[in-house]
Design a protein that fits this description.
With about 190 residues, the chain is an alpha+beta fold. The chain folds into 2 domains: about 100 residues, Topoisomerase I, Chain A, domain 4 (Orthogonal Bundle); about 70 residues, Gyrase A, domain 2, CATH 3.30.1360. The protein contains 5 helices and 6 strands, in the order H-E-E-H-E-E-H-E-E-H-H. The protein has a 4-stranded antiparallel β-sheet. A two-stranded antiparallel ribbon has the order 1-2. Helix 1 runs antiparallel to helix 4 and helix 1 runs parallel beside helix 5. The longest helix has about 40 residues. The protein is elongated, with a radius of gyration of 22 Å.
Amino acid sequence: MQPVATIKEALAQTRKRMDKTVEDFRRELGHLRTGRASVTLLEDIRVDYYGTATPVNQLAKLAAPEATLIVVQPFDPSITAAVEKAIRSSDLGLNPASDGKIIRVPVPPLTEERRRDMVKHLHTVLENHKTALRNIRRDSKASIEALFKDKKVSEDDKHHGVADLDKLTHEYTEKLDSFSKNKEKEILEI
């Protein structure tokens, strides 16, 4: 955390860092498969394009015309096989089919066991992000205590700052829990 001159600055930095953590969690949730086709499933797939690992969404047009199908249309037809291979070798359990120009990726329905595994993974991701929030809180609390130690704020201000920090941490933890509950409901929905 950057050095701060006031408690207000410390809380502003904390809010900014916690916003980034929540946004990262939302992005992670977008990659979890819910049984419906979504182009965000393929966002993290990298294709070897002339020796460079390039995201598939920069090499092809992605679309989900149906609830169970993703269509990938490479801008350069010569890389169709490489894109297909990258999708197949990802850990998403997808089996793409190509006609030489367009790759069709059927999204199979999730089994009950797979849904349970995804919920476990969701809880792991949630806990990692909650830990990140706690680490941010710890850093901010240390900054506030350093201000008190350097006699830049009074003891009352320090206590109020820590109380505000706890409220902020609780607020962001509730946001993560809310997103997690919604996603869990979506995953378990048949």
